[in-house]
Amino acid sequence: MFSHLRKFLTALVLVLALTLGSQVASADGPLDIVLDPLGGSSLRGAIPRAGPAPTGSQPAQPAVPQKALVDVTLAPVAPAEARGTATISEKPGSPALLALYLEGLPAGANAIVRLHAGTCAAPSASNGLLGKLVADSSGDARLLAKQVQFSAAGATTPLSLALLADGDHVLVVLDSGSMSPVNCGKIPAPAPGRAADDPGWTGIEAVDAVTAAVLRGDVDATLDLVRLTELQCVSEPPTGFAVMPACETGEGDGTLVSVLPTAACEGSPARDARPVVEDFVQKAWSLYAVTRGSVVSPPSSFMPHAEYVLVFSPRPGSLLNGLAACMRDGAVIAVEGR
After folding, report:
1. Would you tell me which of 67, 171, 203, 214 could form a disulfide with 196, CB atoms 3.0–4.6 Å apart?
2. Which fold has domain 68-186?
3. Whole-prediction pTM
4. Per-residue H/E/C for 226-253
5. SS3 of 28-47
6. First-to-last CA distance in the chain?
7. pLDDT of residue 189
8. Number of C-alpha atoms within 13 angstroms, CB side, residue 246?
9. For residue 15, what is the DSSP state?
10. Distance from C-alpha of 35 to C-alpha of 20, rounded to nearest angstrom
C-alpha cells in the first residue's frame, strides 16, 4: 500500500507540474523537484518543465541551499502501541528542524517530547523539552520544533545536527499524565553526503511559511497566506462541473467575484475559503514534494498556473491519495485533492 501511495504521489507531482505549468511553453530545461521526504526513487533531474530555459534576459531561479538530513524511527514502548518517525534537517545558516509524526495514540492523548543523552534502554536523567503534542480523533499527532528547552527557567537553545545527531542522543515521547514513555528512538549520525529533501524548509520563504502553517494544523495562519482570484460568475453554471462561480442574488452574468479555485474530481470555485482551508489542513499530513512551474496562465484557465506546487501526502487512513497547494507571488491561489 505504501508503494502504491508513493507511485500515486510521484504521478501527482508530474501531473500537477504538467497541467499547471505546461500549456504555455516547450519542455526545455529541467523541472525542479525541491524535496521528496518519502525517499526512494528520486524525481530530480531530466523531467521536463514548462517554460523556456533561462537565458541572459531571464534570471535563473536561485538554487535551493543544500541541507543535511537524519531520519529517526520511534518504536513503541510497551504497553503503548503508537509508532512514529522523525526527520531532522538542517540547512546552512538556519536552526535544524525536527518534524515528528506519531500514529496509534489514544484519541485526544497529550504527550511531550524530550531529548535525552544515552540510549532508549538507559536514557540520561538530564533532558531537554522539545515540545508538546495532542492526538487528534484518529490518534495521529505531529510536532515541529526548532529549539529545545534545557532549563526550568525557560531558556531555549536552537536545534542543530551537532547537538542532536552525535550518535549519543535519543528522542523520548512521554504521556503527559503518567509521564510513562510511549515511544523512543535513537538519533543516528547523518549519512555521509546525504542532502536533505526534508518536510518543511526549502529555503524559499513563502513556501516554508505555507508548509509550516499546514503541518502544524494552523487554519488561521494558512488562511492569511491565501489570495482569492477574481472570476466572472454565471447565472447557470454547468451541472456537475461548476468550473465558474454561480451568480448570487443581485449579480448579473459576468460579474467579477472573488473565489479560491479548488478541484477534486471536478472544479469548484469557493467564495468562502475557510471551509476549504480547514478541510485541506485537516487532511494534509506531510510534505511530499515541491515543484517549480510556469507562472503564465491562459485567460480561460479555471485553475491558475502556479509558480510553486506543494504536494502533501494525506493523513493515514484518508480516502485521498494526495493534496496540492498551488502558489504564486507568495500566496496560495488554488488547492486540489485527489
Report:
1. 67
2. Immunoglobulin-like (2.60.40)
3. 0.52
4. ECCEEEECECCCCCCCCCCCECCCCCCC
5. CCECCECCCCCCCCCCCCCC
6. 16
7. 84
8. 10
9. H
10. 18
Q: Which triple of cell numbers denotes residue 302?
A: 479555471
Residue 98: which of 220, 248, 201, 222 has the closest Cα?
Answer: 201
User: Phi, psi (5° rounding) for residue 274?
Assistant: -60, -50
Q: What share of the chain is helix, strand, coil (3-state, %, to 5)?
A: 15, 35, 50
| Number of Cβ atoms within 10 Å of the Cβ of 85 | 17
Cα gap 84→75, rounded to integer Å: 7
Q: How far is CA 38 from the centre of its chain?
A: 12
In the numeric block, which cell numbers belong to residue 149? 528547552
CB-side exposure of 98: number of CA atoms within 13 Å?
A: 28
Statement: residue 308 has pLDDT above 50? yes
- DSSP helix/strand/coil, 300: coil
Residue 100's identity, in one-letter code, is L
User: pLDDT value at position 277?
Assistant: 93
